[in-house]
Structure formats: C-alpha cells, structure tokens
Amino acid sequence: MANTRGIKRIIKSKATVEGAGVHLQRVFGYFEKEETDPFLLLDHFESDNPDDYVQGFPWHPHRGIETVTYMIEGNVEHGDSLGNKGTIRSGDVQWMTAGSGIIHQEMPQKYQGTLCGFQLWVNLPKAHKMVQPTYREISKERIPEVIEKDFQIKIIAGQYKGAAGPVHDLVTEPLLWDVHLHKGSTMTIETDSAHTVLAYVHQGKGIFDLERNKLLGKNTLVRFAAGNQVRVSTEEDHVKFLLISGKPLKEPIAWYGPIVMNSKEELETAFHEFQEGTFIKHGAG
To answer: Is residue 2 part of a domain?
Structure first.
C-alpha cells in the first residue's frame, strides 16, 4: 500500500569556508548526522568568481568514509598518495572509498562561467572501515538519463524503470539522482521504507509535501518522514534537486575533521598514524 512521505525536517544550507579558502554552502554535517544516516555531509559549491574556489582542498587524509564529488559545471583536478590522478569535468562523478586511509587533494580549476558541484560523504559500516581504498571515475557518458514528458533523471546510483546508475552493490544501498521536474508537473518516486530519504533543491522551487503544499526553493534540504514513496510537484517554476537515499547504519559515530570511525580510540589511532607516517595501509585499488 502506498504511503507518501511527508516532511520530517527542513534544513537551509549555511555559507562556510573550507579547505584553503573555498566558499561553499554546507547543507548538512556533523550536527545532523543522526538524522541523515548513512550520509554524513553534503556541500554545495557554486560561484562565478574563481577567488571563491581556486585555493581548493590541498593534501588531506580520509579514513572510514566514501566521498562523492559530482560536478554540474566546471573542472576539478585531483591526485592522491596512491598515484591516482585525473580531472572531474562537467557532468562527471568521482566516488572514492577512503576505507583504511588515503591522502588526496582536490583543486577546482578556473572556469569561464559558474562553477557548480557537490560533495557528499557516505559513512562506511564498522566492518568496512578499513577496506582497501578505491576510486570510481565516472564520466558523464556513463550516467544514464531518463527523459519523460514531465521530468528528467540523471541516475548516479540506484535505478529507475530498468535504468541503473554506474554505482551499485554498496553496503548502504545508496540512491543518488539529479532530478529536473518541469514547471506545472508532478512526479511520484518509490522509495525503500527502511531507508533515509533526502532531497536538496539546487535550482527553482518545488512542493515536497503535497498535503501541506509546502513550496521550497534553492539551498533547501528536505528530510522526509517514514513512508514508501515521495511525491514532488511544481507550479509557476521548475525545480532541480538531488534525491539521496540509503540504508541507515545505526552505528556509533566518532568524527573529527576528515576521519570518521566508530570510537574515540579509533580516531586517536588514525591521527597518530597520520602523524607517524603509517596512515596508508593499502596500495591503489
């Protein structure tokens, strides 16, 4: 039986500065981690001023998480301590499993126009915290796009009507779509009733709770309540939003900076190893 999800919480993103001086919008992070489980953080960067982003994110460590970088427009060069390097271009995705530990850098390049993209952090369960690091370099050509009369969906993870994204078979069963719902339209999305479901508006305005007729605009995150489907509609404007869904881990979270473990002791070990030069446990995967 269909049970449409209402809105549990609405979060407005907040301006912040990260890395060596990158101006961005922090959508959610440390203080929302229980509500967004298994997702830890979502950052939205969007600027037509290179001074806001070219300082980038110089060399820094990660352990215990996955980072997902999705570029709408613009290019980001990256490299890591395992020898991986490349460029994420407009429409591309990088899905990195930090696992047991990686040291990397991400450097946005000066762009003619408005650079726009997102970084999502996905928690790893205790049993997978120390797996071998891996990279998934996903060009825009590998991301299927479903086009229907009222909407379009770019499917990075998850599936829709047989179209499956290139990222799958992960423990948290993630779904990550970039959805464009046209003006004056309605769409219904089936969701797993046991999963956390979020929607982040990055352009236009949409109604995400049809009973309350709640119109939400840019830089707004919806944390949906229980149910097994999401319904979204538009009136005088279109809306573009990220739909994010995954299986909650329901495990203890010990988090400081770029490292997320299950206990304070594991955090202390990670930072001690980083200082001592024993942080990297595996070669490139």
So the answer is: no
How many structural domains does the chain have? 1
The pTM score is 0.96
In this structure, what token pair is assigned to residue 216?
Answer: 């939400």
- Is 69 a member of any domain? yes
Strands 65-73 and 93-97: antiparallel
In this structure, what CATH number is given to the domain that contains residue 15? 2.60.120.10
The answer to whether the beta carbons of residues 59 and 75 sit under 8 Å apart is: no
Q: Nearest CA to 151 among 240, 22, 257?
A: 240
- Tell whether 34 is covered by a domain: yes
What is the edge-to-edge ordering of all strands in the sheet holding 93-97? Answer: 14-18, 22-28, 39-47, 115-123, 65-73, 93-97, 134-138
230 and 5 Cβ atoms separated by less than 8 Å: yes
Query: Is 23 contained in some domain?
Result: yes
Residue-range definition of the domain harbouring residue 50: 7-276
Q: How far is residue 72's CA from residue 45's CA, in Å, rounded to a whole number?
A: 10
**pLDDT (tens digit, 9 = 90+) per residue, 141-162?**
999 999 999 999 999 999 999 9
Strand locations in 191-253 (E): 196-204, 206-207, 215-216, 220-224, 229-233, 239-246
Reference 68, options 92, 93, 44, 45; nearest CA is 93
Four-residue CA torsion sign, 27, 119, 33, 35: positive
